[in-house]
Amino acid sequence: MKKMALAAFMTYAGLIGMSTHAATATGNFDVNLTLTSKCEINGAAAPTGAVITNLDLIYTSFQTTDATATTNLNVRCTDGLSYSLGLDNTTVTDDALKLQYTLALSSTSGAGNGTDQPFTVTGTIAKNQAGTCTSAFCTNSAATNKQRTLTVTY
Fold first, then answer.
1. Residues with Cβ within 8 Å of residue 124, at least 6 apart in sequence
2. Which helix (H) or strand (E) element contains residue 2?
3. Which one, of 45, 30, 44, 35, lies nearest residue 112 by Cα?
4. pLDDT in tens, 142-153
């Protein structure tokens, strides 16, 4: 009986000794991130994408003052990313109504901050133009050069 008790005690003592000798090992690793920077153009009516509200210029033949109108848009770029804005053409003669107009941006550059940054495109038809129209009222719906492109370069 003493031998059994001694064996049980030794087994128990061995288990206790094992748990007090537990060890740990650690290893370190890096988490490497890759970010692809990006800019987006969006209009007030379209929360994402490159949809910009149309610019509607209204003009009367031989008008004595310039006709102006604006459209608003937003540019959202990666925080810290510099960008520039450009229009494909800033002086255009509409091929349907034969009216010349100019376009101007409120600013042509910026630095991204991760949120929408507002810009304005202003269109101007200079005064004293005749235009071409065969009725009392015409639109440039048939014009082949009415679409303009705004480019963000980053």
1. 57, 66, 67, 68, 101, 102, 103, 104
2. helix 2-20
3. 35
4. 999 999 999 999
Alpha carbon distance 82, 113 (integer Å): 10
Phi, psi dihedrals of residue 71, rounded to the nearest 5°: -135, 145
pLDDT for the residue 27: 97
Eight-class DSSP state of 78: -
**pTM as predicted:** 0.79
Residue with tokens 């008790």: 5
Distance CA 56, CA 70 (A): 8
End-to-end alpha carbon distance in the chain? 87
State pLDDT tens for residues 41-55: 988 655 556 678 999
- Tokens coding 27: 């290893």
Cα–Cα distance list, 131 to 93, 124, 125 (Å): 10, 14, 11
